[in-house]
Amino acid sequence: MKKFRYLISFCLLLITALPVSAQCNFRNTAFQSGEFLVYNMYYNWKFVWVKAGTASMYTVASHYNGRDAYRSSLTCRGNNNVDDFYILRDTLLSYTTLDLVPLYYRKGAHEGNRYTVDQVFYTYPRGKCHIRQHRLHHNGKSEWGSHTYNDCVYDMLSIYMRARSFNPKGWKRGHEIKFPIVDGNSRDTAELKFDKVVNIKADNGHEYRCLRLAYLEWDRKKSRMERIVDFYVTDDLNHLPVVLDMYLRFGHAKAYLVSMKGIRNPMSAQIK
User: Fold this and answer.
1) d(Cα 76, Cα 9) in Å, to the nearest integer?
2) What 8-state DSSP symbol labels residue 100?
């Protein structure tokens, strides 16, 4: 990993032929244990934006199977005012090593009238990436799978934690970073695409200079890449999400930063 640690493009990291045990490591420059972020959530309801709930993300030093790890959790909660329209109760949990190698992922999703649970268990035998996948379907059916890869794979939370340490210096509009993404029963291609630098105001009353990044995943039914969320992250070493613009099954939602604590680096992207 030392040969590639300081390269700007993460693409090279994914396609080189080095052993996976080294290839999956990545240097964390963006966050520390104790970071806690809170967001207001809004839904678009008949062309009107309605406050619909909250989201929070917490990262703490922990242990997983006896080794030091980061535990990151993301919780999204719609409020009672919009439950008749669309129920949203999502909880994502991820364990990674201190150098951001994925170890475990879980997503419990109560969306509309459906509840599913995805799990991914990672191990790295003989320099390869081995995953066990589990999906509990909304009808109670339990589905298990097992795969071994020569390259690294990631889930939605572990790639988010890693992406915060990317170095965007020299990125031009349209710059793409592709990577394999897994959940409880599939592996697909995903990508981050850089758009531009914009100023955007959070719900804490402050304005920030942000990088606008689109996150896209392969849609098997449509046989094309589909935009999932636009991230507006601070243009500083924290790469802290200020606004998330989400494209959900039922429509459109946004999350605006309300408060933060335990930030690792100075917030140099704050304008006012």
Assistant:
1) 31
2) -
User: Cβ(269)–Cβ(260) under 8 Å?
Assistant: no
| Predicted pLDDT at 267 | 97
d(CA 192, CA 93): 21
Instruction: Give the SS3 label for residue 23.
Output: helix
Q: Burial of 204 by CB count in 10 Å (0-12 exposed, 13-18 middle, 19+ buried)?
A: middle
The whole-number pLDDT of residue 124 equals 95
Angle at 71 between CA 66 and CA 75, to 5 degrees: 145
**Could you tell me the sign of the dihedral formed by the alpha carbons of 62, 64, 68, 72, in that order?**
negative
Let me know: does 192 contact 213? Beta carbons within 8 Å. Answer: yes
Question: How many Å apart are CA 113 and CA 220, to the nearest integer?
Answer: 23
Torsion of CA 58, 255, 153, 197, to 10 degrees: -110
Give residue for tokens 């992922």: 105
- Indicate the residue type of 165: S
* Separation between Cα atoms, residue 233 and residue 214, nearest integer Å: 11
- Ranges of the chain whose pLDDT falls below 50: 1-22
Q: Given its phi and psi angles, is residue 238 left (phi above 0), alpha (psi -120 to 50 degrees) or beta?
A: alpha
Within a 10 A sphere around the Cβ of 179, how many other Cβ atoms? 19
Measured distance CA(256)–CA(215) in Å, rounded: 17
* Residue position matching structure tokens 């919780």: 75
What residues are paired with 180 via a beta bridge?
189
- Token pair for 237: 């070493």
- End-to-end Cα, the chain, rounded Å: 39
